[in-house]
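Q: Here's a chain of 132 amino acids. Please give me its 3D structure as tokens.
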Amino acid sequence: MESLIVISKVKKFIKDKADCNTSTGFFEPLNADIVKACRDAIAHAQKLGRKTVMGKDFNLYVENSNIEESLVVASKVKKLIKEEAGLSTSSQAIDQLTVRVQTVCLKAIENAKADKRKTIMDRDFSAPTSLM
């Protein structure tokens, strides 16, 4: 599966937030979660009869998210949504996916620290059900 996340930026985000390293195994479940979030958002937009996936189609919507740097590859996200459903993608969708990646990373940091580790691993991943 093609990666929808910008691995180097996610590593930097984790390093900046907690001075932790990241194992390569962490990125597969994170990417799979982003793909699932896109598919769920597609289904929501289609249910409402819209031709564009918007930020509010994602289950972890943050009003006025002030994203400085995207942690997902916008062109690949847009390509996935276009190929799977023929829908367009708003810029808000990219912001919401970045919020999701940040949420997952912050929780993974907590999990690793609870295990007294400085490396974020695949076992630290958990799909968010709410914002922290």
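Q: Can you summarize the key feature?
A: The chain has a mean pLDDT of 93.
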